[in-house]
Amino acid sequence: MAEVKELSDATFETEVLNSPRPVLVDFWGPGCPPCMAIAPVIKELAADNGEQALVAKINVAENFSTASQYSITGIPTLMVFKNGEVVARFTGTQPKARLQAALDEAMA
To answer: Whole-model pTM?
Structure first.
């Protein structure tokens, strides 16, 4: 069962932009109730997608450079990357089905 990967400014390029598989990134912050509410969904997506896609999260309070690069103005912001490009972006809590559909499209 795949786990949610913790990212940082230092690992973002290697883990996300250079990934051979699609990546769902949860841009989150401490003390953010919507971020805490969606965390179990993110864990489920990691478990459900195993080796087909990477599910990761990055704390915007500790990794300002990456958050700034992607113009994160509200959290949680969830992005799906494919071949280093953003192919889907959502702000706020989202239904699991919507996030899975975005991942499925990126894996197709």
So the answer is: 0.96
